[in-house]
Write a structure and sequence with these properties.
Strand content: 25-35%
CATH topology: Pnp Oxidase, Chain A
Order of helices and strands: HEEEEHEEHHHEEEE
CATH superfamily: Electron Transport, Fmn-binding Protein, Chain A
Mean pLDDT: 91
CATH class: Mainly Beta
Number of helices: 5
Structural class: alpha+beta
Distance between the termini: 17 Å
Largest sheet: 10 strands, antiparallel
Shape: elongated
């Protein structure tokens, strides 16, 4: 078990929560956990119908958490209709979890281009070949081969693919403890600052 996060009411003031999330993520990477960047992302349609899936956390700083996808996927369409989301990262061997909730914004073309260029060649071809979430009606591998012939090594980012940033206005850090007396610290953005409170387990 790890020592608990600094809680309200102790001599130390609560820290900026996204810095704590980054520390926990780095600890999960250092521990060699499989897929420490796997993140459950929940979105909802304009009518409020929810959906959730696993995406990969690709960036985390004081502005929020970034991920990339096809804009025409279900999550992309729902974020266009209702640009808010919630996400959870769970590192079971460390008895830690994080929840993020808030508005989602599109990344600029420059940032999306830079990340796309860093992807392996096969993943870049896959972004072109896959109509993410659509019913598959032809040979996907044949489509990839055709794209290989079309692009060679110079594979630009498709206009329908790019990044998003979840800029949380609420963050919860959870640490498992014996007898289900878990530590839960909930942060809510208050203007340019954060206020925090401890929640019952």
């Amino acid at each position: 078990m790890h020592p608990p996060v600094t809680l309200p009411g102790t001599r130390s003031e609560p820290r900026e929560p996204l810095a704590l999330v980054a520390e926990w993520y780095e600890a999960a990477v250092a521990a060699g956990l499989p897929e420490p960047h796997a993140m459950a992302l929940a979105t909802a349609s304009a009518a409020g119908r929810p959906s959730v899936r696993i995406v990969l956390l690709k960036g985390l700083d004081e502005r929020g958490a970034t991920f990339f996808t096809n804009y025409g996927s279900r999550k992309g369409r729902e974020l266009a209709e209702n640009p808010r989301a919630a996400a959870t990262l769970y590192w079971q061997p460390l008895h830690r979890a994080v929840r993020l909730e808030g508005p989602v914004e599109l990344l600029g073309a420059e940032e999306s281009d830079a990340y796309f260029a860093s992807r392996p060649r096969g993943a870049r071809l896959g972004a072109w070949a896959s109509r993410q979430g659509a019913v598959l009606t032809d040979d996907l591998e044949a489509r990839v081969r055709a794209l290989e012939a079309r692009f060679g090594d110079d594979i630009p980012r498709p206009e329908w693919w790019g990044g998003y940033r979840l800029a949380p206005d609420a963050v919860e850090l959870w640490e498992g403890r014996p007898d289900r007396l878990h530590h839960r610290v909930h942060y809510v953005r208050d203007g340019d600052a954060w206020r925090s409170e401890r929640l019952s387990p």
